[in-house]
Structure formats: C-alpha cells, structure tokens
Amino acid sequence: MSRPTLEQVASRAGVSRATVSRVVNGSTTVAESIREAVHRAVAELGYVPNLAARSLVTQRTDSIALLLPETTTRVFSDDQFFPGVIRGVSQELEAADKQLVLMLLGSAAAHERAKRYATGGHVDGVLFASMHGADPLPEMLASHGVPVVCSGRPLSRSTVPYVDVDHEAGVVAAIEHLLSSGRRRIATIAGPQDMVAGIARLDAYRQVLGASDRRSIVAVGDFTRESGEAAMRQLLADDPRLDAVFVASDLMAHGALRALREAGRRVPADVAVVGFDDIELARYTDPPLTTVRQPIEEIGHTLARLLLRLLGGEPVEAVVLPTELVIRHST
Q1: Where does the record place the HTH cro/C1-type domain (predicted)?
Q2: Residue 260 contacts by C-beta under 8 Å, 6 or more apart in sequence?
Q3: Which end of the chain is more exposed for a tag (fewer CB within 10 A), N or C?
Q4: What angle do CA 85, 293, 202 make, to 5 degrees?
C-alpha cells in the first residue's frame, strides 16, 4: 500500500491541504475542533509526516548535535563522565521530542566534517562537551547563526553560553579537609592543561596551599587511570615524604591508589587520597575514595535546557553548578 498523503488526510478531515500542513507542523492558529478533526484523520489513515518536506516548511530538523572532541577510546572507556552527560542530554531532548546526533571529533577530519554538517542545516543546534584548548569551532558556528552551548568555561573570549561546575569550591573543600586532618605535604595529580577542568583545579590547589604556606608538589595526567598511576610514581620519587594527594579525577585517583599499593604505602594511614567527579567507581575502590562530587548527569540536562531555550528565542546566561565533598575511607 502507498503511504497516505496530505491530500487524503485533508479529504478525510474535510479541510484544506494547507490547514492539515499547519496542524501537522504544530501551528496554534487553527481552531481546536479543526485540529481534532485533522488528528483523527491522521490516526485513521496512519499518516506519517515527510520529515524532509516538514523541514522545508518549519526550517527545523528537530535534531541536536552533541560534539565530543575526543577519541572513541576515551569516550567509551570506564570513565563515566561522558555516559552521564550523554544520558542527561538525551533525556532532556527526548522529553522535547528532539533527536540526538552524537559526533566524536577525535581527528582533524572529523572536526572539519562536524563543521560542514552543523553549518549545512542538518541540525537545529549544537552542544559541545570536553573542550580542549581555545577551539574556534563553537564561536564560528555561533557566528553562522547556529545556536551553541558548551560544557566548560571557554579558555578564550567567547559569546557562547556555557555550563560548568564550581571547580574552585570543590578543590578548596578537598584541600581544607586534608589540612584539617593533619596532612602537611599535600601533592596533586592535575588534569590536562588544555582543558578548563584541569587548569581550574590546579589553580585552586595552588591558591589554597599558598595561603597555608605549604609548597605545591605537582604531576600532570590526562584524566586516564594509566596517567594517574604514572603520575603517582613520579610524585613519590619527587617527595617520598608526601602524606596526601589531591587527584583531579576519580579515574586518575584509581591509578594513584594502585601505585601507592605497589610502593607499600597504606591509604589513608601513610597517604590520604582525594579524587574529583564521584563516578560509581569511587565507591568501590580499595579503600572507597573520598572525592568531590560534580553533578555529571545534571550537566547534560542543563546543556540541553539552555539550548532548547535558545531555539525558542529566549536569552540565556552561563550556569555554574555546585560541587560537594564526599568523605569516604581514603582520607
């Protein structure tokens, strides 16, 4: 059987083709009785709108792109940040009857392809997460009229709205907790210094220690378990007497715990460990990990809400979500 047409729906409902088109495309200017007649005819005939034709009328695709400038290995590792953000975005868009398009920008070619796709009218708006460096793509898309919202404060001047967490308050709470428990030589494993999360957490660590007249002891990782393990070995070599370490992600903290165990250091008796994220893994490390909780899934929800408001023509501002110290046995 051929698929029902607008003309057939119009005939069944006793209205014009133009009226059916307005009802199907969500117009609120049609009388309620006529809308009911059209919807009844749509249901009886099993009419399914032609999305390509509908897009020509509405100038909307009902699709939103989530761009992650990461490799597939990084996104689909056991770091639960990305699944949490994707889940939050997806739930919000599903409630708004929007389609999520996930694009990984792990190469220059993928980056260029995403730019062509977004500026080519294939999506109504773009969300960015896990930004590295001063990536010009968000600002470029916005200058082409594409609604854009980013996760994380930009590293350069930008007019693009963003969602971030209060890194500074979380780190201050973590370091003050270590200081109040009597720790004196507090090191850190910082995140990558081309990302706002890595930079902000290291800056806050240095400020708190500087205010307490203690020196910084720093190694840098890339938010992976392996980098945390390697950085912990480096810190132990640099200062064997360190008695605490603040780690800028839970996954790196897991690696640090492994390195401490291999070095014969007891946690927390010899070295206290604090992470950042509060992913599920933090509850099951040995010992369970004290960490700074950031609302990962809420980041995704908030990103999508801001973009939907932009699509609706509303003004939006940056949102900074709170963090919270969760104390467990590693301190």
Answers
A1: 5-28
A2: 232, 236, 267, 270, 271, 273
A3: N
A4: 95
| DSSP letter for each residue of 185-243 | SEEEEE--TTSHHHHHHHHHHHHHHHHTT----EEE--SSHHHHHHHHHHHHHH-TT--
**DSSP assignment letter at 289:** P
Taking the model in full, what pTM does it have?
0.80
Whether 167-293 and 6-58 are alike in CATH topology: the answer is: no
Spatial CA neighbour of 256 closest among 269, 247, 266, 243: 247
Q: Which residue has the tokens 């896990």?
A: 130
Dump pLDDT digits (tens) for 151-166: 988 887 788 999 999 9
Q: Which CATH number fits domain 63-165+296-321: 1.25.40.620, 3.40.50.2300, 3.40.50.620, 3.30.1540.20?
A: 3.40.50.2300
Answer yes or no: are the C-beta atoms of 204 and 193 closer than 8 Å: no
Q: Hey, what are 160's tokens? A: 């693009």
Name the β-bridge partners of 163: 151, 319
The CATH number fitting domain 6-58, selected from 3.20.20.140, 3.90.1570.10, 3.60.110.10, 1.10.260.40? 1.10.260.40
Task: Report how far residue 185's alpha carbon sits from residue 162's, in angstroms, rounded to the nearest whole number.
Answer: 36
The token pair that represents 267 in the structure block: 């946690």
Instruction: Kindly tell me the burial class for residue 312, based on how many C-beta atoms sit within 10 Å of its own C-beta (0-12, 13-18, 19 or more).
Output: exposed
Q: For residue range 25-84, list pLDDT tens digits in order.
A: 777 788 888 888 988 988 888 877 665 455 545 456 789 999 998 877 777 776 688 899
23 SS3 class: helix
| Angle subtended by helix axes 32-45 and 17-24, to nearest 10 | 90
Token pair for 231: 């950085």
CA–CA distance from 9 to each of 39, 45, 247 (Å)? 9, 7, 62
30 SS3 class: coil
